[in-house]
Amino acid sequence: MQHPAEHSPLGKSSQYIAEYSPELLFPISRTTKWAELGLDGASLPYQGVDYWNCYELSWLLPSGKPVVAIGEFAIPADSPNIIESKSFKLYLNSLNQSAFASWDELQATLARDLSAVAGKPVAVRLRSLAEVSEEGVATLPGQCIDELDISVSHYDHPQPELLRCDAGRVVEESLHSHLLKSNCPVTGQPDWGSLVVEYRGAALDHASLLAYLVSFRQHADFHEQCVERIFLDLQRLLQPQSLTVYARYVRRGGLDINPYRSTEAIKPENGRLARQ
Q1: Active-site residue among 50, 113, 165, 184?
Q2: What are the pLDDT digits (tens) for 82-137?
C-alpha cells in the first residue's frame, strides 16, 4: 500500500523558497494510520499533543534587519491531519526574506496557517534564544531502564508479544528509555528518540518493555504513529487506571517532534533534552 506521504515533498528534490509561501504546507490525514491501529478518530482512547520545536526560525523586521528565534508549535493529537515535516521546514524557510511588523504578527500568521492545514487550532509560541537558554536541559522522570541486561533478536517491526506484566500487582511508576529508534517510512532515515511511560496498573516487567522498544529499531513509521502504537500495546496489556506515553525525538532539519498521548487531560512540559 502506498504511504500517505508519498505525494508530499518528503524524499524529493525541492526548491527552497525564501518568501512567505503558506501553500508549501502539506497535510497528511491521520485517518489511514488510525485505521491501521484499529482507531476511530471520533472516539480516540487518548488525549494529547504533538510538540514541534523549530530551531531555524528567522524573518525580517520592516527595517530589513533579520531576527532569529525558536518556535514551539502544539498540534492537537486529534487533529484530522499531521503536517508533513519537510513541507513544514520549507514553509518556515519561506519566512527568511519576509518582513513582519512584530513578533505578534508573525505568531498570528503561523497559528492561522498551521491551524488551517492541521484542521484544528495549533498553538504557537515564539521564544528568544535567551529565554530558551535560561531553561537549560531537562531530564526525564522516573527510572531509566537502559542498563537492564537483555538479549535482543527482533528489530524489523514492533513485537508487543514481548511485553509482560504481573496482573496481581498494581503499581504506579514512571519509566524511560533513550534506546528508541525507528525509520522514516518514506526516506528510510533513522529517527532517534527517548520514550517515557507513566502509568498506574498491573506491574510492567521492565526488561520486557526495553526489549519491546528495541523491536522498533527497523520499523518504518512516523513519530506520532510509533507513540500511538506503544500507547495502545501497553493499554491492552496493563488495563491501566491511567497511562501516559510520550517521546522526545532528536531534531532533523531544525525540527524536533514530540508526541504525547495520555488517558488523562495532561498539560505536558516541553522541556528540551540533552540530545535535542
Answers
A1: 184
A2: 999 999 999 999 999 999 999 999 999 999 999 999 999 999 999 999 999 999 99
Give yes or no: 156 in active site. Answer: no
pLDDT at 3: 47
**Residue/partner pairs of 27-31 with CB below 8 Å, 24 or more apart:** 27/80, 27/81, 27/82, 27/83, 27/84, 27/117, 27/118, 27/119, 28/4, 28/81, 28/82, 28/83, 28/84, 29/4, 29/80, 29/81, 30/79, 30/80, 30/81, 30/82, 30/224, 31/80
Amino acid in position 91: Y
pTM: 0.93
**Domain parsing of the chain, residue ranges:** 22-135, 143-262
Residue 154 has pLDDT above 90, yes or no: no
22-135 against 143-262: fold identical: yes
CATH number assigned to the domain covering 22-135: 3.30.1130.10
What b/e sequence results for 60-95 when a residue is b if at least 16 CB atoms lie within 10 Å of its CB, and e otherwise? eeeeeeeeebbbbbbbbbbbebbbbbbbbbbbbbbb
Q: Does domain 143-262 have CATH number 3.30.1130.10?
A: yes
Over range 179-183, report the average pLDDT: 97
List 50, 54, 113, 191, catalytic entry: 191
Annotated active-site residue 184? The verdict is yes
